[in-house]
């Protein structure tokens, strides 16, 4: 399908931040959004959005302008000694290899864009510098996100100048989702607990902040770097 519209591909679009990003972008003019989900039958909100908005569709595309790897899991929130190797493998497969496979498959379409952009939704848990100050026990999750961060750094180096690609990692903030609830419960807290130094965001608040970064990102300022939802840079 030939199109002059700006084309977004978003994985993990059925709930939480991914759905909020999809909903926000769907309000724009002249866009096409390919929204990915693991189970279309259970993606009630996404299906309803697609029925109401013809910008959220499945099409055969000739280019992709924005590729957003948002899908992720955190299946065990325990210390290293208590986390089975299967959990490390599961989270690495989804959180690190998932963005890799997405990029490899969509690269030919990204390369046809005049301004290609690739963003991976990561987490501060993937910052090695942040581990000593972490308030949560997220060993397997953190390792998988650190791997995803490193992957994006390589993609930026290999394709930034070559293809004009902006490749960056974004932290969505601490968002009130099922994943955040599980992380809180793992340390004996409820989702509504106040944690010093951490601001709880709604999915809509996080999505608005991330889309602002997507819009403003440039290769010179964002390529191969790690940013928080508020625009500040996070150390690796």
Automatic annotation (TrEMBL):
Q: Which Gene3D superfamilies match?
A: NAD(P)-binding Rossmann-like Domain
Could you tell me the superkingdom of the organism this chain comes from?
Eukaryota
Which Pfam families has this protein been placed in? adh_short_C2
Molecular-function GO term, any one: oxidoreductase activity, acting on the CH-OH group of donors, NAD or NADP as acceptor
Protein name per the record: NAD(P)-binding protein
């Amino acid at each position: 399908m030939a199109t002059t519209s700006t084309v977004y591909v978003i994985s993990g679009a059925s709930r939480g931040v991914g759905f909020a990003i999809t909903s926000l972008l769907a309000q724009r003019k002249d866009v096409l959004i390919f929204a990915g989900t693991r189970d279309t039958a259970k993606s009630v909100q996404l299906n309803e959005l697609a029925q109401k908005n013809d910008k959220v569709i499945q099409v055969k595309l000739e280019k992709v302008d924005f590729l957003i790897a948002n899908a992720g899991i955190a299946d065990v929130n325990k210390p290293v000694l208590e986390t089975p190797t299967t959990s490390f493998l599961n989270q690495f497969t989804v959180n690190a290899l998932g963005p890799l496979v997405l990029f490899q498959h969509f690269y030919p379409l990204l390369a046809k864009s005049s301004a290609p952009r690739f963003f991976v939704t990561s987490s501060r848990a993937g910052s090695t510098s942040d581990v000593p100050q972490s308030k949560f026990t997220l060993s397997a999750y953190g390792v998988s996100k650190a791997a995803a961060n490193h992957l994006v750094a390589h993609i930026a180096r290999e394709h930034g100048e070559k293809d004009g690609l902006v490749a960056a990692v974004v932290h969505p903030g601490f968002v009130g989702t099922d994943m955040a609830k599980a992380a809180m419960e793992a340390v004996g807290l409820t989702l509504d607990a106040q944690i010093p130094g951490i601001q709880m965001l709604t999915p809509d608040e996080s999505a608005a902040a991330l889309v602002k970064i997507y819009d403003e990102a440039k290769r010179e300022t964002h390529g191969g770097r790690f940013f928080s939802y508020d625009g500040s840079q996070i150390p690796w």
